[in-house]
């Protein structure tokens, strides 16, 4: 079976994206698992190779895809921007670089939807620059949902020991209680079950967390557990989904990290990402569930303090590419881990 082609988006050219891509594409497991097509800026990629000292050579592909017999010393790049030096200052993203980030993402999504590539793995972007360029999205996830016409999507962060899915994503903590609704919790459980079942583990067991300490302590610390979360879990179980809870976050992760659950449904961003990054700081992967395409990403930001030094850890980029390739292989064999 041919190795799948993964589109790798450069992210913010003024951050560490080009450097971690340059290093990740030399990883032996990546080379064995997939072919790649980098969508980005030629000058930024050339600069990254000079900084990292990687002996790769860039092969520009304005059209077409990398060959089946691709070479391990090549980076196959489709240039989508030609930024000026003023727009490539490390740690100083501009509207022009924000527009470039948008073009990398949208092109990758279109290639995925057309079946030209098997999936996409994304380097980190600067959300402020994206918005300054006129593209008003809080992040990759929401942009890709719009591009693919997806209404029900879930952000999941994953590593070998733990997967966490989020009911609310980038929201102020003060707004979370009103956003944790029956429909939103149930939708998150459904989407997580479907795609974990499809790509990772058949008939997955899901842990669903409480919002309040000690599951609300019988209403003393809040009523969301009895009013919203428990009914949503009951509805999911009535559909045949193996979801249990609500469970207290202060104890649950101990058991989840030991393999007791295939994924944990969390009510808000830091509830899930703190334990995930404690275990998978260097190799965590952001996976967008619910899309008609495969999309993975690094689980970190642009790291401007490291940009240009060649010292940024590239393991999360490696993990994101590998996970996209494995998900594509499962899907393209026509036999997911479970039923789609």
TrEMBL record:
Instruction: Detail which positions bind a divalent metal cation.
Output: 170, 214, 269
Q: In the Enzyme Commission scheme, what number(s) does this protein have? A: 1.1.1.262
Q: Which cofactors does it use?
A: a divalent metal cation
For this chain, one GO molecular function annotation is: 4-hydroxythreonine-4-phosphate dehydrogenase activity
- Cofactor: how and how many bound: Binds 1 divalent metal cation per subunit.
Instruction: Please give the family membership noted in the entry.
Output: Belongs to the PdxA family.
**Additional information:** The active site is located at the dimer interface.
Provide the protein name.
4-hydroxythreonine-4-phosphate dehydrogenase
What organism does this protein naturally occur in? Geomobilimonas luticola
Q: Which gene encodes it?
A: pdxA
């Amino acid at each position: 079976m041919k190795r799948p082609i993964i589109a790798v988006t450069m992210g913010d050219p003024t951050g560490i994206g080009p450097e971690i891509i340059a290093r990740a594409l030399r990883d032996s497991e990546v080379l064995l698992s997939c072919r790649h097509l980098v969508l980005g800026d030629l000058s930024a990629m050339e600069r990254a190779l000079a900084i990292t000292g990687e002996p790769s050579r860039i092969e520009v592909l304005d059209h077409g895809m990398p060959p089946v017999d691709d070479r391990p010393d090549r980076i196959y790049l489709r240039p989508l921007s030609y930024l000026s030096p003023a727009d490539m200052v490390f740690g100083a993203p501009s509207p022009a670089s924000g527009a470039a980030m948008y073009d990398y993402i949208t092109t990758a999504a279109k290639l995925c939807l057309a079946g030209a590539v098997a999936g996409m793995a994304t380097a980190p972007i600067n959300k402020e620059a994206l918005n300054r360029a006129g593209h008003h999205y809080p992040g990759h996830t929401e942009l890709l949902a719009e591009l693919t016409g997806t209404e029900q999507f879930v952000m999941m962060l994953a590593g070998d020991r733990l997967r966490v899915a989020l009911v609310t994503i980038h929201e102020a903590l003060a707004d979370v209680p009103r956003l944790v609704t029956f429909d939103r919790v149930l939708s998150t459980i459904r989407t997580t079950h479907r795609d974990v079942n499809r790509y990772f583990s058949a008939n997955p067991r899901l842990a669903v967390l409480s919002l309040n300490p000690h599951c609300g302590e019988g209403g003393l610390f809040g009523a969301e557990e009895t009013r919203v979360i428990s009914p949503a879990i009951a509805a999911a179980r009535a559909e045949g989904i193996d979801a249990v809870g609500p469970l207290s976050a202060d104890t649950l992760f101990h058991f989840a990290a030991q393999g007791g659950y295939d994924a944990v449904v969390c009510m808000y961003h830091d509830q899930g990402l703190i334990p995930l990054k404690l275990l998978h700081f260097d190799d965590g992967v952001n996976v967008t569930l619910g899309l008609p395409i495969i999309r993975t990403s690094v689980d970190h930001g642009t790291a401007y303090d490291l940009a240009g030094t060649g010292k940024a850890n590239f393991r999360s980029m490696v993990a994101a590419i590998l996970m996209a390739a494995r998900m594509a292989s499962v899907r393209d064999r026509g036999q997911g881990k479970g039923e789609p």
